[in-house]
Amino acid sequence: MSHTAPIRSHRKPRRSASTIAMRTGVASGVLGTLAVATAAGSANAAEPVTQTLELPVLTGDLAAQVAQSAEATQQAASNYQLQAARDAAASAAAKEAKKDLAHAKAEATKKAEAARKAAAERATRNAERTTLSTTASSSSSSSSTSTATGAAAAVIAFAKAQVGDAYVSGGTGPNSWDCSGLMQTAFKQVGISLPRVSQDQSTAGTQVSLNNLQPGDILYWGSAGSAYHVAIYVGDGMFVGAQNPSTGVVERPLSYDPPTGAVRVL
Q: Whole-model pTM above 0.70?
C-alpha cells in the first residue's frame, strides 16, 4: 500500500439540491396542515355550546297515580264541605230547639199562672156564694135592705119591667138590651148618667161590700175597672140583669151567679 493513497474524508457528504427541496416541501405541508387545524380549532372555540335536556316521559302507571291523587284530594275537599254544612245545620237546629224550649217554658209558666188565678177566683167565688146566701137570707127578713124607696125604687121598677126582653149585644132598648145598656137606661130615669160599658160602670160610684148591699146598687162581675158584666140589686137577695142571649133579661137570686163586687151611685 502506498503511503500516498488517498484517505477517506470524515466530512458528511453534501445533500443534493433535490433532497433539500423535497424536505422543504414536506415541512411546508406540515406547517400548512397545522395552520388549518389551528384555524379550525379557533373557529370551533368561538361557537357557543348548546346542551339539550330531555325530560322524562310520564308512563301510564305514573299518570294513573297522579289522577288518583287528584281525585282523592277532590273527595277530601267535598267531604270537608259536607261536614261543614252538617255542622252548620246542627248548630242552627240546636239554636232553634233552645228557642222552642224557652218559648215552651214561657207558655207553661203562663198557663200555670192562669190556672192558679182561675183556682183562686173559684175559691173566692165559692166563699162569696156562701156569704151572699147568708146575706140574701138576712135581707129577706130586714126591711131596711129589701124595700126600695125614692130614686132606687124608680130604677128598680124600670129594670123589672124589662124582664123577658131579649139580650142583644150593644142593645139599649126599648125591647132588647145588653147588660150595661139596661143599667144606663134604668138610671137615666132618675137623671143619673152612667158610662156606656161595664168596665166604666164598675167604677162609677162608691165601692160597697157585698155584705152591705142596698136596693139600687150596681153589681159587677170581674174586677173594678175591668168588669165584664153588670146588673142591679133589687133587694131580698135578688138582682135583675140582661144576662145572655139564651136567657135575656131575668130576675135571679144572688146565689145564681155571685157577683165580684158592687158600686153605689144613689
A: no
